[in-house]
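Lecture notes, unit on binding sites. The following record was shown on slide 14. It pairs a sequence with MRU.
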Amino acid sequence: MQVDGQAYRTIWLDPDSGHTVRVIDQTRLPHQFVIKDLRCLDDVRLAICDMTVRGAGLIGACAAWGMYLAALEAPDGSFESFMAQAGRTLTATRPTASNLAWAVQRMHDALSAGGSPPEQRRIAKDAAQAIADEDCAHCERIGQHGLALIAEMARRKPGQVVNILTHCNAGWLAFVDIGSATAPMYAAHAAGIPVHVWVDETRPRNQGASLTAWELGQQGVPHTLIADNVGGHLMQHGLVDLVITGADRVTRCGDVANKIGTYLKALAARDNGVPMVVALPSSTFDFSIRDGLTGIPIEERNPDELRWVSGVCADARPESVRICPADTSARNWGFDVTPARLVTHLICERGICDASESGILTLFPEHA
Ligand code: MRU
């Protein structure tokens, strides 16, 4: 996508060195656009842990490149055990999104076809690049399928703007390019359909305010930032036509783990007859789990993310301030699970389906 008119992916292998992975540092957005270099497995582990990179698709792609860097570091004499440990290290960084463990497993599968460490290093590079390219292609297709839904909404209210509410950032910053939830918005905007996006701020890390608002602005998509609790009020007043969120893990029956607060949007959407649509590439499915509430591990993060807020002062100096008494105890769950019954549709790269086991299996019959 475009940053100040120049096309970027969120992650790429530096073509000159061949062994440096470059990422957009998302902890610095929206105030600074900074590219960071990752040169070894531990750089990748840290970048995922401190959320230099975040979002389901991107942490998957980053883990794949981390496996490539690990393959460059691995001694020939203990290549297999080094790579097995690298996979465990990366998988442990963040527990909720499926894409991370999926990408690590795909790298292991690819490596197993190689006959020697030098060959496996070449395979690792190609496999990581393929995962990144596939992420982009899948998001592109999600955009085209979602465009049909938005176009249908637009037909029902000729000459009026289609209002879409989204939560957190399932945009191009959460993937390698384009995004999942944002893909239909970008496709509709490009097709000349008038869309406007309500952007939930998404406490406590404010990915909506700092990332989604920034990336929609960079692409010229009309949007308005709202506090997290506003969505229900807007729906009651007919100001939301459609909710589109991303997902971090979706079970075979259609339960959706996504950023904390998504469940409350889904409840409000159901109460107001607003379609609740979840966009995801197939790497976000976990076909081994049926019940999301009992089966999906929910990341609990440092409570200081809740107790402190970061931003810039009027003179653009970065600043963090505490917003509660110093001794207030806090807990910080990163995700919640929206039961399939509250989800109107899933949009995947293969098409649109019901959020149910039978609906999902119509698109992915190989998992029956
Ligand atoms: O904690 P994050 O920022 O990595 O959370 C992921 C998300 O941004 C959301 O849950 C998003 O909607 C799904 S990621 C495609």
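Take-home: The pocket of MRU is lined by residues 54-57, 168-170, 174, 180, 207, 245-248, 258-259, 334 (CB under 6 Å).
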